[in-house]
Amino acid sequence: MSNESNYLASLIGKEVKINRGGPDTVLGKLLAVQSDYLILHCSDGAVYVQNSHVKSITENRENKSSTYDEAPRYYEGDSFHDVLENLKHRFVQINGGGPEKLEGFIVDVTSTHLLLVVKQEVIRVPIFHIRSICVKEKNKSQGSSSGGNRSGGNKSGQRSGHRSGNRSGSKSGHRSGQNVSHGSGHRSGQKSTRGSGHRRDDSRGSRVRSRVGSRVRSRVQRRQSGLRRKAW
Question: How many other C-beta atoms can be found within 10 angstroms of the C-beta atom of residue 74?
């Protein structure tokens, strides 16, 4: 075992800082040292760092940034390529920051590249460009909550719209129905009462007229008969 390997092995279980600054910097507790990669316990969980991108590594003796209660689950393969194979069909983050940071699903791993699905795009990433990689749990709570808010909003909107529509429709329909029925009933009632009353008055008048006429005729006839008797 070389001196460098001995030095890295002595740092296992300690908080270390890989690289001095920039997007390549990784700060965490060293968990394991393999032939071509390192495993660190960071705030994002287990982070796999490819040795070819490690420019420096130092023990962080001052200003401890985090407390490490329980080590995350991680995979120790013989090589960095084995780690990528084990992470197939997982949602991962490639590189810690900068323009080369990617988040997506690994769909395939070849000897030189991996295929990453980012949103609706398939990106071919060369393995030698990967500085670090870690498993990311996709935040489903935000999507479900927003989806729940949208569906709740839609449901509430539909309910309120349905209720208001029913109320306004029932009110307007009730009012129009009352107006129409009241108007039509009033008109028909007026017509019917007027027509029937007028007819009844006509019939009564004709009866009275016939009675009066018959009485007058009988009186006239009596007078004529009395005059004839006197003439005789």
Answer: 18
H or E stretch at 44: none
Surface-to-core class of residue 45, CB atoms within 10 Å of its CB (0-12 exposed, 13-18 middle, 19+ buried): middle
Counted residue by residue, the chain has a size of 232
Helices marked H in 105-139: none
- Cα–Cα distance measured from residue 217 to residue 222, given in angstroms and rounded to the nearest whole number: 9
Q: Bridge-partner residues for 58, per DSSP? A: 17
Answer whether 52's CB lies under 8 Å from 128's CB.
yes
Coil, strand, or helix at residue 29? strand
Q: Is the pTM of this model over 0.90?
A: no
Percent helix / strand / coil, the chain, rounded to 5: 50, 25, 30
Cβ(40)–Cβ(31) under 8 Å?
A: yes
Residue with tokens 């307007």: 172
Cβ atoms within 10 Å, residue 136? 15
For residue 193, the Cα-to-chain-centroid distance in whole angstroms is 63
Do 55 and 67 touch, CB atoms closer than 8 A?
Answer: no
The pair of structure tokens assigned to 200 is 């009844």
Per residue in 184-224, pLDDT tens? 444 544 444 444 444 555 556 566 566 656 675 666 566 66
Instruction: Give the contacts of 112 (CB within 8 A, at least 6 positions apart).
Output: 126, 127, 128
